[in-house]
């Protein structure tokens, strides 16, 4: 989703801003732009449809020289992805603005501004904000006041950054929804949508809260609250380094992130899970132990891949902790009337911690009588972490590929920890819990073995590349694993893929099965195996081709229409983590063969900061 970078420095900012945009590419975008205010007080800009590299090429051809600037990657919402709609937008060249989010009342404001003589050059809601700020600047002569007054008229969720010819030496930025950070340098200061954009220039950050406006100058940064009062904000030093977002020797970030999973999982276990000792709560926030002890039900809310992790955890919670669990996508939850069971915990899952629907669901949950909000999140500085009373961090490290991989498997590991903690509090048998802890601790090794399937899956992918559709089957906790496999395939290879609980096959999707429909099944050696095998026979009998990921001893034999991929065993109840890995690899290799943009698939964004 849109990315913002801006800065005021003693040096030329063009390359800093372009590097910032490159580092925000993972968020997903369709066009990019940059505007720089030169030392003669003139704003110059470049905008390009497509990748940041196109914009960089334009800047090589015709460099923008200046010490103040703003830049943007745009993910189209209002107006198609054209150069004219790309940011920064001008108001008669006196003002340049970049914007993330949606201005909901743009239509009446546009009409009013047109009546007042402002000429519009784009179809965007952003240009409305540019003219509105220009109008206020005419009256006040002060860019900060102009932004304060203009934003009072705006409705919706947005983050903005503005520079003005008439009030140079500062970038004014504000936040009302999408994230915004300030980066503190020496004699230079920056703003961006996330810390990764600014890591080459600083590791010191302050996080802007909703409703705040920040005045960024060379020698100081001043943050104002909604009422115009100065806010003191702690400056935090990020543990991330600029190199943390490099692809290394891998061809794609997604590939790197798939192969990082053994490490990411062991980092998420580190210091928390020990085989011979009951789990110690690593949950941040006061009263975590008391909250878990009194939890009698759990409501999980998340989006996308994170939602699938929640669906798996539901099986674990109900089976191991014996408490009811509901799981819902955040965009539905936030608008529904809820009946909350007594002593319910509200649990959110998010890689980024900035997903607008998930954040809105957290707000909505405050209307209900939840005992607490627990966030499982990968970004310690995110909005979700700041807005939840309890937090369990996944230690996956930065995830750049739009298709989530290591964030998902580390979420599962964190979820199993929560399940074990609740089960422990509820007096579950220690020998059962010990066994589960042992299985968790073995996960990194077992994932390593699943990754050894890579060459085999690469060859298998050749049989998917020309298909238009694929069906994924699983049962129990492996149904959401199948859902995640289908999501991965459609996200990055654009092959239509659907997941079904295998027992539902006969109620509809079986009609689709023929020789052109590959059917992928997830078949662990558990109590459902025999049932699943009957479902697979239903596919075989209709001439469908099966690709079955099965543990040794499943009693499935290769044959016409039946391809068996032998999975490593030993992960017990944590095995959904292991079975996810080959499905990620299958999607990855299919996409590579198809030649799609693996890390930034069309139309998708990594961090969805609008509704
Ligand atoms: C986007 C991403 C998905 C991700 C989802 C939820 O759709 O493309 O990969 O699963 O958002 O993101 P979150 O950061 O909340 O886990």
From TrEMBL:
Concerning Pfam families, the annotation shows: GATase_6, SIS
Q: Does the keyword Zinc apply?
A: no
Reactions catalysed according to its record: D-fructose 6-phosphate + L-glutamine = D-glucosamine 6-phosphate + L-glutamate
The GO cellular component terms are:
cytosol
Q: What class of enzyme is it?
A: transferase
Give the SIS domain ranges. Answer: 288-428, 460-601
Q: Which InterPro entries match?
A: GATase_2_dom (IPR017932), GFAT (IPR005855), GFAT_N (IPR047084), GlmS/AgaS_SIS (IPR035466), GlmS/FrlB_SIS (IPR035490), Ntn_hydrolases_N (IPR029055), SIS_dom (IPR001347), SIS_dom_sf (IPR046348)
Q: Where in the cell is it found?
A: Cytoplasm
In terms of PROSITE patterns, this protein maps to: GATASE_TYPE_2, SIS
Record-given protein name: Glutamine--fructose-6-phosphate aminotransferase [isomerizing]
Native organism is: Acidihalobacter ferrooxydans
């Amino acid at each position: 989703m849109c990315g913002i970078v801006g800065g005021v420095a003693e040096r030329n900012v063009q390359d800093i801003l372009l590097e910032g945009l490159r580092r925000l590419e993972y968020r997903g975008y369709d066009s990019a732009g940059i505007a720089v205010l030169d030392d003669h007080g003139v704003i110059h800009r470049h905008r390009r449809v497509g990748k940041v590299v196109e914009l960089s090429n334009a800047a090589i051809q015709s460099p923008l020289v200046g010490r103040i600037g703003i830049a943007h990657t745009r993910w189209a919402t209002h107006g198609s992805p054209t150069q004219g709609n790309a940011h920064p937008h001008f108001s008669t060249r006196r003002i340049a603005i970049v914007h993330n989010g949606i201005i909901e009342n743009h239509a009446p404001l546009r009409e009013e501004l047109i009546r007042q003589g402002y000429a519009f050059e784009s179809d965007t809601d952003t240009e409305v904000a540019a003219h509105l700020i220009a109008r206020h600047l005419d009256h006040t002569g002060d860019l900060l006041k102009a932004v304060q007054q203009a934003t009072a008229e705006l409705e919706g969720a947005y983050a903005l950054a503005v520079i003005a010819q008439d009030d140079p030496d500062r970038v004014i930025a504000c936040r009302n929804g999408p994230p915004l950070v300030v980066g503190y340098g020496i004699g230079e200061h920056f703003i961006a949508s996330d810390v990764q954009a600014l890591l080459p220039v600083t590791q010191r950050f302050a996080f802007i809260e909703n409703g705040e406006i920040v005045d960024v100058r060379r020698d100081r940064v001043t943050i104002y609250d909604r009422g115009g009062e100065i806010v003191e904000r702690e400056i935090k030093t990020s543990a991330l380094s600029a190199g943390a977002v490099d692809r290394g020797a891998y061809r794609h970030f997604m590939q790197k992130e798939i192969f990082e999973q053994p490490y990411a999982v062991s980092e998420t276990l580190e210091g928390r899970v020990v085989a011979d000792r009951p789990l110690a709560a690593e949950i941040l926030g006061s009263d975590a132990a008391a909250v878990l002890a009194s939890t009698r039900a759990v409501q999980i809310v998340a989006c996308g891949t994170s939602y699938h992790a929640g669906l798996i955890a539901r099986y674990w919670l109900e089976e191991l902790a014996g408490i009811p669990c509901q799981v819902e996508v955040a965009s539905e939850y936030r608008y529904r009337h809820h009946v909350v069971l007594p002593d319910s915990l509200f649990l959110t899952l998010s890689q980024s911690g900035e997903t607008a629907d998930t954040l809105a669901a957290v707000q909505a949950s405050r209307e209900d009588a939840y005992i607490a909000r627990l966030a499982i999140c990968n970004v310690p500085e995110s909005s979700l972490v700041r807005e939840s009373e309890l937090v369990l961090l996944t230690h996956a490290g930065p995830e750049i590929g739009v298709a989530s991989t290591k964030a998902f498997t580390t979420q599962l590991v964190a979820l199993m920890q929560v399940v074990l903690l609740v089960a422990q509090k509820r007096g579950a048998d220690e020998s059962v819990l010990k066994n589960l802890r042992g299985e968790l601790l073995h996960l990194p090794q077992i994932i390593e073995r699943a990754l050894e399937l890579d060459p085999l899956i690469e060859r298998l992918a050749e049989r998917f590349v020309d298909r238009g559709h694929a069906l994924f089957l699983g049962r129990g906790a492996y149904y959401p694993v199948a859902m995640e496999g289908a999501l991965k395939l459609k996200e990055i290879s654009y092959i239509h893929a659907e997941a079904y609980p295998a027992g539902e096959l006969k109620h509809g999707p079986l009609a689709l099965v023929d020789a052109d429909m590959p059917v992928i099944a997830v078949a662990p050696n558990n109590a459902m195996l025999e049932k699943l095998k009957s479902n697979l026979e239903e596919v075989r009998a209709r001439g469908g081709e099966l690709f079955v990921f099965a543990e040794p001893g499943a009693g499935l034999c290769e044959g016409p229409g039946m391809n068996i991929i032998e999975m490593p065993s030993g992960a017990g109840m944590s095995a959904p983590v292991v079975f996810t890995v080959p499905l990620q690899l299958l999607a990855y290799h299919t996409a590579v063969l198809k030649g799609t943009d693996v890390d930034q698939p069309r139309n998708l964004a990594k961090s969805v900061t609008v509704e």
